[in-house]
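Chapter review: from sequence to fold.
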Amino acid sequence: MAAYFIAQYVVKDPALYGEYQKSAGPTIAASGGELVSFDAASETIEGTPPGPQTVILKFESTEAAKAWYQSAAYQAVVGKRLQATDGFAVMSQSMNLGG
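The token string follows.
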């Protein structure tokens, strides 16, 4: 079952975020992930988001998504995103009825 990594945030440090982007992309590809959406100006229709930027990555399974996130390669760069942004990220399965 497909799984998605969804991050929603505001970029506080564009230079540091740019460094993150250059380093993170290869880790996604190496893990079989796919960039589904990158929107620097998402339109909020409900609630109060932390910022306008939304990123959605697709992996073949939750295990694959977690393996990417926990990989040494991604852990070596994720700190830059965490420093450069304020927001949140979630893992979501394509169909999870919560059973």
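Two observations follow directly from the output. The helical segments are 14-30, 62-70, 72-84. The chain has one domain: 3-93.
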